[in-house]
Amino acid sequence: MARLTQADLHEMNQTFEERTPQELLRWTQEVFGSRVAALSAMQKAGSVVCHMLRALQLPMKVVFVDTGVHFAETLTTRDRIAREYNLDVVTLVPALTMEEQTARFGVLYLTTEGQQRCCHMRKNEPLLGIKGQFDAFIGSLRRSEGGQREKCPILAVDPEMNCLRVNPLAGFSDQKLDEYIQAHSVIVNPLHDQGYTTIGCNRCTTPVLPGEPPRAGRWRHLGPWSAYCGINPTDFAREESIAIDLSQDLVDRILGRRTDFVI
Ligand code: SF4
User: Fold this and answer.
1) Is the sign of the CA dihedral 73, 143, 154, 126 positive or negative?
2) Which end of the chain is more exposed for a tag (fewer CB within 10 A), N or C?
3) Which of the pair, 62 or 228, is modelled with greater confidence?
4) Is position 229 annotated as part of the catalytic site?
């Protein structure tokens, strides 16, 4: 095994700023083969990634974590994307239903500590359940979302899942995203047209008012609009020294030391 740190990715990240999302998706598929999946919460950026996968004919799975308390519109969007884009969408579920969790621990999401615990049980733990199946996950984080995502790198190590996170849309502006959606009639969660700028569980998501930050509708009851669920490690402060362990061959391929494939 070989160690790959966030610092090791510095040069790759600079080079990749010049690449289009489609080029980055192709690179990821070439490097990781069947060991990469897209991770989507079925919000509009995730829909764009799914559309690009279909357009590029990239045969990667799409992983969706169903917390059990998603909006019906989100589940309908997932099903439409799977069916109409012919994608293999894998749905992960928590160990406990929300009713079982509430009976055992109470209504957790009403406090900051409880939210972290609830998100961990309902989002992180299902994902950790497939740890080892994939060496990379495609995400759909964008810097123009603001907040913690303003500096989101394209490539990021994820020590908890021991994999690489790839965000091909990191440099995609709101305008570019909307233009892509319009140009390709992308299937998007209909809640976006009802004032929901970002969409999570129905317990913790509201629409936003004009002038509010885009994430104001997430955990509004907790304030001050700064909460993240934890499923995306780059949403939190990180050291350049954090690392993952992959095979030497794979690390060489990621860093471009072995290029028997076309970028
Ligand atoms: S968003 Fe709310 S309901 Fe959903 S997992 Fe997190 S705390 Fe629980």
Assistant:
1) negative
2) N
3) 62
4) yes
Distance of alpha carbon 71 from alpha carbon 62, whole angstroms: 19
Whether residue 231 is predicted with pLDDT greater than 90 in this model: the reply is no
User: What is the longest distance spanned by two Cα atoms in the chain?
Assistant: 54
Closest protein CA for atom 6 of ligand 1? 119
- Amino acid in position 255: L
Average pLDDT, the chain: 94
What pLDDT is recorded for position 170? 97
Place of tokens 């140009």: 183
pLDDT, position 259: 61
Residue closest via CA to ligand 1's atom 4 equals 201
Find residue 184's DSSP bridge partners: none
Cα–Cα distance measured from residue 187 to residue 198, given in angstroms and rounded to the nearest whole number = 15
Closest CA to 130 of 161, 165, 164, 167: 161
Provide residues with CB under 6 Å of ligand 1: 67, 69, 109, 115, 118-119, 122-123, 200-201, 203-204, 229
Is residue 159 within 8 Å of residue 242, measured between CB atoms? yes
CATH code for the structural domain at 2-254 = 3.40.50.620
DSSP 8-state code for residue 197: S
CA 196 to chain CA mean position, Å? 18
* DSSP label at residue 122: I
The distance of Cα 83 from the centroid of its chain, to the nearest Å, equals: 21
Determine if the pTM surpasses 0.90. yes
Task: Report domain extents, the chain.
Answer: 2-254
